[in-house]
Design goal:
The complex is a heterodimer of chains A (121) and B (296).
Chain A lengths: L1 H23 L7 E8 L2 E3 L2 E5 L4 E7 L4 E5 L4 E5 L5 E5 L5 E6 L12 E7 L1
Parallel strand pairs in A: 1-4, 3-9
Antiparallel strand pairs in A: 1-2, 4-7, 5-6, 8-9
Chain B lengths: L4 H7 L5 E5 L15 E7 L18 H10 L7 E5 L9 H15 L7 E4 L2 H4 L5 H7 L4 E5 L2 E5 L12 H12 L6 E5 L18 H8 L4 E6 L6 E5 L2 E5 L31 E8 L4 E8 L4
Parallel strand pairs in B: 1-12, 2-3, 3-4, 6-7, 7-8, 8-10
Antiparallel strand pairs in B: 2-11, 5-6, 9-10, 11-12
Classes of the chains: A alpha/beta (121), B alpha/beta (296).
Chain lengths: 121, 296
């Protein structure tokens, strides 16, 4: 009887751990993938809407020259080289509107190369 | 820690800075400066080649007015510094050099013995400083004046806004030769702290620079880039941003975009200006006087 109880406790603990693992580690399908194209001097799209706590994977490409991508509020920064896909993943941890911008100087419109990230509940 | 002028006044003698309104070369008093006192002038963000009549209808004349004003100061400054963005950026390499020539022609009218230049990202980021160095020399260097050690740091020729490992080593090597209480002034273009990274008002590896400077007790930074007067402390190190001589920009994060502030016909040249900086070397104190551009 005692052995059965121990087995049940072990199994329950294991299932609990499995459930926790499943909950805390989102599957690939749970990550929202957003493709963003950079070119002098804008991002397409330039407005992103995501949900708080849900991981986001950005797939960044450039059609002309090296650009940067930065969301300082979430410590996101990436260098976008033309001819390849740069991936950066982050989880927005608070709601609100935030700025993303190019942080690699790219010419006379560099200061305008920015967009808006909206994080909802 | 962002602080206003009043707070800085309270810090005078601690942070080593006091303010004065524009005094026209009399910043250290009307009497002849002592050996351990001098003053210099900071001009910044002249953006020669910028064209935007709604922002500055006198784009071709503003720097000329500043140069004439400096030349007419009662007492000549020991030297003048330009803290970057001498020219407005262009992809056209020939035009870039043309703008640098125009800038040189105007700055060459300054009636002072010594002028120190440094680059902004508009001058140097698209070609890693090639054209800039042809015209103005090194991107980073040091000089000494009456007991103050000046360090010119390049945080713009890498388009990613970094100082970089090689320059950091150079800085650390330079600092090694100085006493911990040596008066040090750092001249650079971008802020050496995260002023507002959302607008690219930062230097990516600024922390490494500040960490290197922290052991030195008397360090002050003068910079440009943000086109407005701004004062900030990182520990005991004071940072002072200068106004532009082409267009003013909004306060950090105060508007959705960092677009230039339009020209105010009722108050021409509002928000533009330059500054004189008096150095009291013995006490490592600096007195800043902001000067406005006067219309024709």
């Amino acid at each position: 009887m005692k052995r059965t109880m121990i087995l049940v406790i072990i199994m329950a603990t294991a299932l609990g751990a499995l459930a926790y693992t499943t909950y805390s580690r989102p599957r690939a399908g749970d990550v929202k993938v957003i493709k963003i194209t950079a070119k002098k001097f804008d991002f397409t799209p330039n407005e992103l809407t995501v949900k708080k706590g849900e991981p986001v994977s950005l797939e960044l490409t450039s059609t002309d020259r090296v650009h940067g991508f930065s969301i300082p509020d979430f410590m996101v920064t990436a260098r976008i080289e033309p001819g390849k896909v740069t991936r950066v993943t982050f989880t927005p941890v608070r709601t609100g509107e935030f700025t993303f911008s190019c942080n690699v100087f790219c010419g006379s419109g560099h200061e305008d190369m920015a967009g808006r990230l909206i994080v909802t509940d | 820690m962002e602080i206003d002028r009043r707070d800085f006044m309270k810090l005078a003698g601690v942070g080593g800075i006091v303010f004065a309104s524009g005094l026209g070369g009399r910043i250290l008093g009307a009497t002849r400066p002592k050996q351990e006192e001098f003053y210099f002038v900071q001009l910044s963000d002249t953006h020669i080649g910028f064209d935007g009549p709604k922002v500055n209808p006198d784009a071709k004349g503003t720097l000329k007015k500043a140069v004439a004003a400096v030349n007419s100061l009662d007492q000549k400054p020991d030297f003048v510094v330009f803290t970057g963005d001498l020219t407005h950026t262009t992809d056209d390499v020939k035009e870039r050099r043309g703008r640098m020539t125009q800038f040189q022609d105007i700055a060459g009218q300054l009636n002072v013995r010594t002028v120190h230049y440094m680059a902004g990202e508009h001058d140097a980021a698209l070609d890693r400083g090639d054209a800039y160095q042809e015209f103005f020399g090194k991107l980073n260097y040091t000089f000494d004046h009456k007991g103050v050690h000046f360090i010119v740091l390049d945080n713009v020729s890498d388009p990613g806004a970094i100082v970089g490992e090689a320059q950091l080593k150079w800085l650390q090597s330079d600092l090694k030769g100085l006493k911990r209480d040596a008066p040090i002034v750092v001249l650079t273009h971008r802020p050496l702290f995260d002023l507002y990274p959302q607008w690219d008002w930062a230097t990516a590896d600024a922390k490494s620079v500040i960490d290197s400077l922290m052991p030195y007790r008397n360090v002050t930074v003068f910079y440009g880039h943000i086109h407005q007067e701004h004062h900030y402390m990182t520990g005991h190190i004071a940072h002072h941003a200068a106004k532009s001589l082409m267009f003013p920009l909004p306060a950090p994060g105060s508007t959705p975009k960092r677009a230039p502030i339009p020209w105010d016909a009722a108050a021409p040249y509002k928000g533009l200006g330059y500054r004189e900086i008096g150095a009291d070397v013995k006490n490592a104190r600096y007195e800043i006087g902001e000067l406005a551009i006067q219309g024709a």
